[in-house]
Amino acid sequence: MPLSRLGFCVGVGLLICLPSRVASQQSPPQQPPSQPMFRSTTALVEVDLIVHDRRGEFVPGLKAEDLQLFEDGRSQKIEQFYMVTHERGGQLFPQTGDSLVAPEDRARRIFVVLFDEAHMDHEGLQRAKVGAEQFVRDNIGPGDFGGVFHNNQMHNSRLTTSRAELIGAIQAVEHGFENRQALLSTFREFPRVPGEIDALRIADGSLEVVSRITAEVCKDDPFNCQLNGGANQVENLIQQKAKLYVRQARILTFNTLQNLRYVVNRLSRIPGRKTVVFLSEGFFVEESRQDLITIAAEAARAGTVIYNIDSRGLVGSPSATPDVIRPEAGRSTAWDTGEDGPLILASATGGLRFRNIDDMSRAFNLVVRDTSTYYVIGYQPDNPAMDGTFRKIEVKPVPSGLRVRSRQGYRAVALPPMEPIRGGGT
Fold first, then answer.
1. Contact 279, 24 (CB under 8 A)
2. Residue 95: which of 301, 373, 405 has the closest Cα?
3. Secondary structure string (H, E, C) spanning 98-154
4. Is the pLDDT of residue 356 over 70?
5. Residue 344: in which H helix or E strand, if any?
6. For 119-142, how does the pLDDT look when each residue is reduced to its tens digit (9 = 90+)?
7. CB 260 within 8 A of CB 225
8. What is the largest CA-CA distance in the chain?
9. Has this prediction a pTM greater than 0.85?
């Protein structure tokens, strides 16, 4: 089935299908009138933020007046403010000042683990699967929803509260037929190509780059230069190698961007914070930066935070722990300039990028820690027009010595109607 027609559902047993109209459910129980209710709306812009002190510890107990909010440099009025903290066992305690609040849409966590198989080598994929499975066993508690996106689709086309279903989905992830590391490995072979940027310039017709690289490789390795027919033939080989790589890398990147768009779009229908754990070693990004910025801006608008885990382990140095398949040294990134893509997604949405970590369980635990306690501020922009433009967001702490991390902005687009998650699972 084409990706654009796939949906995914929320819940177990009684499903809520997101792409179409949500199935009717029984009304949720009424909250006590003494407890103020905060609810996401399509008009309100919400910003999740992490506030740390000089020691890197989360700072609790802040109030709205402790923060200044700016959109495109103009001060905005904070109309909604509370803190969400998740304790082990699955209970949430949203707070605003000293008053307990009960925002229905914050009373659960949502994690989507997105495997970018085309941009992970076999060892890295296996390492990531082990870490993801342990993450589910240790951290998916009562009320948490999860999903596993692999092979260009959401497993079972839904989110679920079932650990067994999530573990089964992770175990079903298979290595891509073609991956970026295999494509990049040809750059190390004669005639060597310095990197992706040079390959792109060659594919775009730069004869100057071809001549420069040919002169360098024939100077460094005259034997192989003559063996391959001399400088003219080496130039042809370099052009063929560069064009083949760029053509294949473009296809892999296009598929990755489509998958990201799909997940971000579907999650935009769910109110509250959503966490996407993007498992990728990086991808060919030189021609897709604006697309990435747009995807990140739309994710930020809908409250989706993207974290990237690089499954390569320790890069460019001996691995500190044995690989789950076999012990081996980390790989060099001399030919690899694709780390910009995951970094753009993470930084623009208020997430983090984790690399040089062999133990994927530790990387997942860092994601959980970062997503389990945070503040939420909401405001209605001075400029209410949803005109598709990018709006820059900046949150500044009033007390000195504090550091705030939040999304960098959002795309001013109307959100689809919010559909709260209801349902159960085991």
1. no
2. 373
3. CEECCCHHHCCCEEEEEECHHHCCHHHHHHHHHHHHHHHHHHCCCCCEEEEEECCEE
4. yes
5. helix 340-349
6. 998 899 999 999 999 999 999 887
7. no
8. 85
9. no
Number of other residues whose CB lies within 10 A of the CB of residue 148 = 27
Res 419: pLDDT: 74
Rounded CA-CA distance 71/391 in Å is 6
Question: Containing H/E element for 231?
Answer: helix 231-267
Phi and psi based region of residue 139 (left: phi greater than 0; alpha: psi -120 to 50; beta: remaining): alpha
By the 8 A CB rule, do 251 and 242 touch? no
Alpha-carbon distance of 163 to 13, in angstroms, equals 14
Q: Which domains does the chain have, with CATH numbers?
A: 45-172+246-426 (3.40.50.410), 181-245 (no CATH)
In the structure encoding, which two tokens stand for residue 409, read together?
A: 């902005």
Question: Which region, left, alpha or beta, applies to residue 170 given φ > 0 means left and ψ of -120 to 50 means alpha?
Answer: alpha
Tell me how many degrees the CA angle 309-363-354 measures, rounded to the nearest 5.
Answer: 45
Taking alpha carbons only, the member of 134, 39, 68 closest to residue 417 is 39
Cα four-point dihedral sign 75, 79, 82, 84: negative
Tokens found for residue 35:
């407890």
List of residues 6+ apart from 80 with CB closer than 8 A: 38, 44, 46, 376, 377, 378, 379
Q: What is the pLDDT of residues 240-287, one digit of tens each?
A: 999 999 999 999 999 999 999 999 999 999 988 999 999 999 999 888
